[in-house]
Each structure stands twice: as C-alpha cells, then as structure tokens.
C-alpha cells in the first residue's frame, strides 16, 4: 500500500486568563457554560475524544477517540487549562498520542506548537527563540517524548523561524500550498516555480537553511481543507472520505500522501457533529482498503524528501497578504459592519513593540544582577510555568541564580520573569485577527500589556502608563462608543489590576458569605488567617481580622488588617491596610467592637474612614466569579419573593389568560412575564430533580406551549443534561441498582420528547461503557433464567433506544 491519508487538526484557543488571577473569569457570551474554553471543550474537544459512528438506523455502534487517528497539535496554554478543568479530555489526548505511537511505527500523532501563538516572523529574535523553546519543553513535559514536528502559529513562516526549529531538533512543519515558491530535485537541476499554490501536496519536501541545516515541510491540500472548513463537506462523512480518496493520482506508482489541515475546532465547534463526520470518514477509508491512515512522522521516515523547496517568507495560511493581518489594515477580517476597518492593528502593534523594547533592557540589567544569562533564564522559566511547586522553583534557582537566593532576591527574579512572560502573552495572534480593537481577544492582549506596565512600575520605579496610553490612543475603534484603545485600557484594564490589598479585600468581603478555611487558596494567592472576629447585631454583621497574603506566582507577600461591615442586601463597606503592629491592630479591634456593640453603624462606617482612609471597598471589589456567587445569595430571597408574586399572578389569572389566547388576543405584558417566569422556573425545578416526575414535566411543557412561553432552551437543556449525567454516574457506580436504571430511562425518555435538543454526550459515553463492560454479564444471567436480570436487560434496551445507542455491540 503506497496510498496514505493524514488529517491534521490545529486545536487552539487564545489564553483567556485574567493576568492577575491566572484564571478565566465568567464569560457571559459562552452561556450556559462558564467561559469559552469550557463551551468549546464541550462542543469539540470532548466529542473528538469519544466520537460516534452510526449504523443505518442512526444508532451509535462505536465510540472512537479521533485523536488516536489524526495528526494534531494543541496550544500549550489550552492544554494547561484543560489539565485543570477538563482532566478527562486531557488524559484522552495523552492516551491517543501513546496509542498512535504503537499504531504508526513509533511515531506519535501529536506535534508541538510555538507557545502562545505569537506570529513568529513579526517577533524579535529573543521572543521567537523563547516561543519555540517553551513550546517544545511544554510538549515534552506533557507527552513524555520529544516532538518530531511543530506547528507555526497561523503557519506564518520565515527562514529564521525554520532555522530555530531545525536547531532544536524539529524534523518537520506544515504549511499551505501557496507558501511554496519553487522546487527542484535534491540531486540538483533547474528550479521550477510553484508559486500560486501549484506545488504537489502529496509528498514531503526539504527546505535547506542558510546555516546548513534543513527541515522537512509538508504542504497540505488547500482546496480539500477549505471544503472541510468552509464549504460544508462535513455534512456527510462518506462524501468527506470520498473527497480525500479522489485526490490520489491513479497514474502514479510512487507513494502519495493526501493530507489536509484545518482548525481542530472545525470538527464540532464550527460544524456541529463534525467530529462524527471525521470518525465515519476515517473508518470508511480504513474499511475500503483504498488507503492507509498515517501521520507525518511515519510517512517522513518511510518516504524522505527527494525534492527541495524554497518557501515564500512572511506568508501564512489565513492572510493572502502574508503576515499583514497582524500589523496592518490589509483587508482580511471576519466581518463587521459596512465601513469598518482594521487600521487599529498597526498602532496597537507599535504600542506593544514600544512597551516590549522599553522593558527589555531594564529586565536585562536587573536580571543580570541575579543570573549570569537573563535570556537563558527566561527560556528555562517554562519549567516553573509548568509546575510552580516550590521544589521546582528551587531547582530553577539552583540552575540559573548566581548564589543561593534569599526571599527578596527570589521574589525579584520571579517578578522579572513574569514581566517577560506577559510581554510575550501580549503578542498572542488573536489580538489582531478579528474585527475591532474592542473585541475580547484584543482587550485580552491589552490586559497582558497592563500587567507588564504594573510590574515595570514595581520593579523599576518607572511609570510607563502615560506614554503607553498615548500610543494606544492612535488605535481607533470602529465602535464610536468605545473610542480607542486608550479608553478601552482605562475602562477594562486599569480597573482589573490587582495587588495584595485587593486580594485581602476580596477575602474579607467574601468571608461574610462563605467562610474560608484558616489557610485558603484564592486563585493564585494563599491567604492565611492570623486573627478573625465575627460579630452580629440584627441584620448587621461585622468581620474584623488580620491575614497574610502570598502570591504563588511571584512569592510577594504582605500582612493586612481589615474590617468589613455588611448591613444586609448589597450594602457592604470595608477597609483594609497593611498590618502596622499588634498595638495598632488592637486599637482597631477596640474601636470597632465598642461601636458595633451599641449597634451604632454610622460610627462603624466613620471608623472605616478613620482607620483605613481611602483603602475602602465594597461588593464591587470582589473578583467577578465570587461576586456573582455572593450576589446570587443576596438576590435569592428577593428573587424568590418576586417569583412568588409571579406565580400568584399566573395561577390566579391562568383561566383569563387561556380565554384571551382562545380569542386570538395577545397577552398583556405582565401576564406574559408571569407565565414565562413561572413555567421556566417550574420546568427547571423538575428537570434538576433526582427523580424526574414525567407527568409533571409534560404538563408544564403543555402549558408552556399553550401560553406561548419563550422557553429558556439553553438553560433547561443544560439542567436536564446535568441531571442525566448524575443518574448515569450513579448507575455506573452500582449497575445492579435497578431503581437508578429506571430513573435514567424516564429522564432520557423525557429528553427525547422535548422541543429542544439536550446534550446526551456524557450520558451516552457512560451507557456505552456499561454496554461493553456490564451488559454482556447481565444478558448471560437473563438468558439463564434470572428474572431480575431480564428486567434489567429490558430496561437497558429501552434506555438504549432513548439514547439512540445500539445495545448489541455487533449491530
């Protein structure tokens, strides 16, 4: 067999973490999920780890891990998020690479990626090197092997980047056909112009480099890749397979590699059920015997290049103007209103370049006082980024520091390196890719720049913000209300900046609503309670205390004293300052105790001003996720009270509402609101119940239809999906629990009858596992005459029908 097929998926999301908290805060646009990473993981990364293959009755007959069958790369920052928040998917990705090494002659499907998706031809030499070093080391730490290939962000390429890949042992990379300039045989001969995407994509090529090194390059099939990504080819798995098989040239005897490359999110996020089309196509290809699946490493070993290529420098796969999409108004965009432009790209990059180049010599000089080679230390800092355990950091210091560091010098070196980390994160490519400087991706890179500004101020006692803002002001938004990047910084970046006092304020305020442990981790900080005193007087509550706050990132720390008064609802006032000694602390305690014991809240508030001055805070000081949780608790009683009113209106006036609808008359707005609120709320309550009352659910749905209620489809579907998973997990833990099986049957029957689709992905995975591991044994007992086993088998078959999973594995 000399016909091979390889599908490559570039799985990537930009880093979305708050630079001060090292965590992604809630993103409302991703509802019902917490954030976009979580949503895309559910729509794409998870389905590809357990993709379905259907029979002709649209029943699931096989569940496969697509990652074990395709070439792929994951962005390192995405994998870091996934390791913590979607560990099951993360482990499935690692397992897939291990399985692929067994299948493909020792060559794994996974390849590396430059660290945070910086456009390398636009980077300076130091950043380019660190991005590649970090990407490789991140890969090694996760996959337990050296990468053979490396994905260049946006496939943006120049010879300097390829030199670094080759220098670090990378054997190949993947480019678009239009990035090839000319080719000739390795043995010599005339060059042939293949510009304009005319290069044959079915073989590997060798790029000779000025240093004398070389690197192999695969040029993916452009038309087929576009058909997958943009032209609807994933609507049919058989058509997808046929398109790939049709690309072989029957007149050639030499080995041919048909390969495509797209964003991995194509398979599920951009195209719903795209993962299933991929799984079906790959299985169809294998069963047809017309080609063999492979990956780039295996093909390269078997069929090394016999042609050399000269690439076209400063080109990319997603910009017909080269790399202009990330520095100029080239015309490439993703939409927007008529008349919009991307003239903001140039001024934004120029502002960031100025910031980078201003702090670089300051970093170099300061770090050189602690380490012999500041830039080598930055390259090595990826080990700390990967694992911030103190023993790892100590090993890092032992390797790069000139002497055993005391805590102040250790803290200074860590802050210097964090400055450099954020000075690279601010170049994440998505900051320039989309339509406007006010987009969330662009705001995110400006936030990273804000962290650089803050660290520079702390490290070098230099205020770079005024000049940086002057430069940002030149980047104008297409949205008049946003103004320019300066206003965006002032509105969205400066208020988000956090210091240790802010962490202390959050700790003090949140403690009134959800008591913390004596030693509590809050995002990337550890707060240790030194003293605490809670007092209550009617609805008012007072929290006085002292705590030590330590950053896990920079090791900076501080002791703080605080007082916070909650007078009910959202009325919260607090103050915080650095700890000023026992005598001062005792004075604070005495003053507040005395005033609060008299229930003199006005004096308590005046004491906040006297003892804490301008360092006061309110509920607005809470970090966003905790703020939401606290406000939910505060609002709970109020919402329940309002809900009771809505329910009373609905129940009392339901006959009149039905009469109006029978006459074809519209419901008055208060009636419609009462119906919407009541029926959506009741449906959510039923769907979240451990034992779902099918009759009640159907009655509520019938009423919702009669009263033309706008159902909260996403919220209700999410609630039922979570309930189904809980029930399925209970059955997995105890398959003999017949009651749990019946409850799951009832809930899944309801899910299939709703006027909206419910995500059954996790439930089907659990069912499939039970089918493979539990069902055969129970079926054998049923066939032997066990009546309980027969009942279980009957219920299991009903569950399979509701979930559209074939129960007999040979179906």
Summarize the structure.
With 811 residues, the chain is α/β, with parallel strands linked by helices. The chain is built from 29 helices and 20 strands. It starts with a strand and ends in an 8-residue tail after the last helix.
Count of runs of 4 or more consecutive helical residues: 29
How would a textbook summarize the main sheet?
6 strands, antiparallel
The SS-based structural class is alpha/beta
Poorly predicted parts = none
Describe this structure in words.
This protein has 811 residues and is of the alpha/beta class. The chain is 50% helix and 14% strand. The chain contains 29 helices and 20 strands. The strands form six sheets. It has a six-stranded antiparallel sheet with strand order 15-16-17-18-19-20, sandwiched between helices. Strands 1, 4, 12 and 13 form a four-stranded parallel sheet that branches. Strand 5 (112-113), helix 4 and strand 6 form a beta-alpha-beta unit. Helix 16 (440-460) packs across helix 18, helix 20 (582-597) packs antiparallel against helix 21 (601-612) and helix 25 runs parallel beside helix 27. The chain is globular, with a radius of gyration of 30 Å. The two termini are 30 Å apart. The mean pLDDT is 94.
């Amino acid at each position: 067999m000399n016909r091979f097929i390889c599908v490559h998926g570039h799985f990537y999301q930009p880093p979305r973490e708050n630079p001060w908290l090292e965590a992604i805060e809630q993103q409302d646009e991703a509802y019902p999920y917490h954030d976009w990473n979580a949503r895309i993981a559910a729509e794409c990364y998870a389905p590809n780890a357990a993709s379905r293959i259907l029979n002709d009755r649209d029943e699931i007959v096989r569940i496969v891990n697509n990652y074990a069958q395709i070439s792929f790369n994951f962005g390192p920052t995405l994998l870091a998020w996934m390791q913590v928040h979607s560990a099951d998917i993360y482990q499935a990705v690692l397992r897939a690479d291990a399985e692929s090494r067994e299948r493909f002659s020792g060559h794994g499907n996974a390849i590396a990626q430059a660290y945070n998706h910086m456009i390398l031809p636009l980077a300076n030499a130091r950043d380019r090197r660190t991005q590649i070093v970090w990407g490789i080391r991140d890969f090694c730490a996760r996959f337990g092997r050296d990468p053979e290939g490396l994905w260049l962000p946006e496939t943006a390429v120049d010879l300097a980047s390829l030199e670094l890949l080759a220098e670090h042992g990378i054997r190949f990379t993947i480019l678009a056909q239009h990035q090839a300039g000319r080719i000739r045989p390795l043995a010599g001969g005339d060059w042939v112009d293949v510009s304009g995407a005319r290069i044959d994509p079915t073989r590997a090529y060798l790029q000779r480099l000025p240093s004398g090194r070389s690197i192999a390059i695969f040029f993916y099939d452009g038309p087929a890749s576009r058909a997958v990504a943009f032209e609807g080819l994933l609507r049919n798995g058989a058509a997808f397979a046929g398109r790939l098989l049709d690309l072989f040239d029957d007149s050639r005897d030499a080995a041919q590699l048909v390969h495509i490359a797209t964003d991995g999110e194509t398979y599920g996020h951009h195209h719903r059920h795209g993962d299933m089309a991929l799984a079906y196509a790959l299985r169809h290809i294998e069963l047809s015997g017309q080609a063999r699946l492979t990956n780039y490493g295996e093909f390269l070993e078997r069929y090394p290049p016999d042609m050399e290529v000269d690439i076209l420098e400063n080109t990319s796969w997603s910009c017909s103007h080269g790399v202009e999409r990330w520095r100029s108004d080239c015309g490439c965009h993703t939409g927007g209103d008529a008349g919009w432009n991307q003239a903001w790209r140039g001024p934004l990059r120029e502002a960031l370049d100025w910031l980078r180049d201003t702090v670089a010599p300051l970093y170099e000089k300061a770090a050189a006082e602690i380490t012999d080679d500041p830039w080598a230390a930055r390259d090595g800092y990826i080990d700390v980024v990967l694992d911030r355990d103190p023993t790892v950091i100590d090993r890092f210091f032992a390797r790069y520091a000139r002497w055993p560091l005391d805590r102040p010098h250790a803290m200074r070196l860590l802050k210097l390196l964090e400055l450099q980390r954020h000075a690279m994160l601010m170049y994440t490519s998505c900051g320039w890719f989309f339509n406007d400087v006010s987009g969330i991706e662009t705001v995110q890179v400006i936030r990273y720049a804000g962290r650089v500004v803050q660290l520079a101020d702390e490290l070098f006692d230099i205020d770079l913000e005024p000049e940086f803002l002057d430069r940002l002001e030149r980047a104008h938004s297409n949205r008049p209300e946003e103004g320019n990047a300066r206003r965006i910084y002032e509105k969205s970046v400066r208020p988000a900046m956090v210091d240790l006092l802010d962490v202390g304020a959050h700790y003090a305020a949140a403690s009134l609503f959800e008591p913390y442990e004596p030693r509590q981790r809050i995002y990337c900080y550890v707060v240790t309670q030194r003293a605490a005193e809670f007092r209550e007087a009617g609805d008012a509550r007072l929290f006085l205390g002292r705590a030590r706050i330590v950053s896990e990132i920079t090791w900076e720390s501080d002791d703080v004293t605080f007082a916070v008064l909650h007078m009910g609802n959202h009325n919260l006032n607090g103050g915080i300052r650095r700890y000023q000694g026992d005598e001062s602390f005792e004075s604070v305690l005495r003053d507040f105790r005395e005033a609060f014991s008299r229930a003199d809240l006005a004096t308590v508030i005046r004491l906040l001003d006297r003892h804490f001055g301008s360092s006061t805070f309110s509920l607005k000081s809470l970090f966003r996720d905790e703020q939401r949780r606290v406000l939910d608790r505060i609002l709970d009683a109020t919402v329940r009270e309002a809900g009771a009113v809505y329910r009373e209106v609905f129940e009392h006036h339901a006959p009149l509402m039905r009469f109006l609808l029978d006459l074809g008359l519209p419901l008055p707005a208060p009636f419609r609101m009462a119906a919407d609120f009541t029926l959506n709320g009741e449906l959510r309550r039923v769907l979240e119940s451990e034992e779902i009352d099918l009759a009640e659910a159907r009655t509520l749905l019938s009423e919702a239809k009669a009263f033309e209620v706008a159902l909260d489809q996403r919220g209700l579907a999410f609630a039922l999906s979570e309930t189904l998973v809980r029930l399925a997990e209970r059955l997995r833990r105890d398959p003999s629990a017949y009651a749990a099986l019946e409850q799951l049957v009832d809930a899944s029957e309801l899910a299939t009858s709703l006027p909206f689709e419910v995500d059954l992905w996790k439930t089907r995975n659990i069912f499939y596992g039970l089918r493979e591991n539990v069902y055969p044994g129970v079926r054998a007992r049923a066939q032997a005459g066990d009546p309980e086993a027969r009942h279980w088998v009957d219920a299991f078959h009903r569950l399979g029908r509701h979930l559209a999973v074939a129960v007999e594995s040979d179906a």
